[in-house]
Structure formats: C-alpha cells, structure tokens
C-alpha cells in the first residue's frame, strides 16, 4: 500500500492535518460504512483540495461548498436514479459490493470506493467515465491509485496534460 510520505513527496506537504475523528464518525454512521484508513489519512492530511486543476478530494469537516458528506449524499442520489444505474457495474451505496462515490474530476470521471464483500477483503477504486458507460475497476487501494495518478500513470483519470512539471494542489473554497 502506498504511504502518505510517498504521496507528499510528489504532491507537496499537506497543510490541513485534521485530527478530530468526529466528522468521519458521523458520516460513517450515517452511511453504514467505515472508510478505508488510507483514504481517511490522505483526506485528513490535505483536506478539501483540487489536484492538478483536475481531481477533487473533499473532507467531511469542510462544511462549505466542498463537504464530503454533501457530495456523497448528492452523488448517491444521482447514481441511484433509474437513468444512471446502467452506467455502473453495481449499485451505488454502502453495502458489500456496492460503490461509494468519493471524488470527481473536471475531465468527467467519477471516483468510487468499492465496498469489500468481506470485512477482511481490500477496498478497491472504480472510476466511471461520466460521459460514457465505461468504467474501470482498479485492483488497488485508494492510496495506491492516487500515487499512480500523481506519477502520471493511466488510472482512468490521467494527469499528464494537467501537471506536466509536477503534481500540485490548491485548497477548495
């Protein structure tokens, strides 16, 4: 599994550094899941950010325009609509095998965490190309997926054209 220091070496030092678990606990209780530790660690370190003017990550304590809880609730409603269900390989939600929306990209991709079938199974990342019925399930954790993205590897969301020199981030308002 990729580590926060590996991500920080490419993206830059985190400046949010959230430590209060209360917003996560409330959101996890509402959704009936426990987010993977690597996802929480990264989002706690960086907060609600835009990476390479392309990829949006959100934190549950932001409570402004870019709150993870609000984003998930809205996206669950969107992806459960009868016109959208055909675009995903399984239902959007928090039950085993379902897909939890956690990020989005300006280039039209939606990023999901696939809830493991068994508690001991790993979480995986699924990226859906919003403008088509195409999706890719990546056999990697969120931190591994993000590290690959930051390296410019093709993980369905590709950063090469957005960060030709090196990855960068900015806080979302």
Automatic annotation (TrEMBL):
This is SMI1/KNR4 family protein. It comes from the Bacteria.
């Amino acid at each position: 599994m990729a580590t926060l220091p590996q991500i920080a070496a490419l993206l830059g030092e985190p400046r949010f550094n959230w430590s209060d678990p209360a917003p996560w606990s409330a959101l996890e209780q509402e959704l009936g899941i426990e987010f993977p530790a690597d996802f929480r660690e990264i989002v706690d370190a960086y907060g609600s950010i835009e990476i390479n003017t392309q990829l949006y990550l959100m934190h549950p304590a932001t409570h402004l325009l870019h709150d993870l809880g609000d984003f998930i609730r809205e996206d669950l409603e969107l992806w459960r609509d009868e016109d959208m269900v055909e675009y995903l390989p399984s239902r959007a939600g928090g039950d085993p095998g379902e897909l939890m929306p956690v990020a989005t990209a300006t280039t039209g991709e939606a990023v999901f965490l696939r809830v493991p079938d068994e508690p001991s199974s790993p979480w995986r990342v699924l990226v859906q190309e919003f403008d088509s019925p195409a999706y890719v399930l990546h056999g990697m954790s969120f931190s591994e997926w993000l590290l690959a993205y930051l390296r410019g590897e093709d993980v369905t969301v590709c950063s090469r054209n957005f960060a030709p020199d090196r990855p960068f981030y900015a806080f979302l308002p």
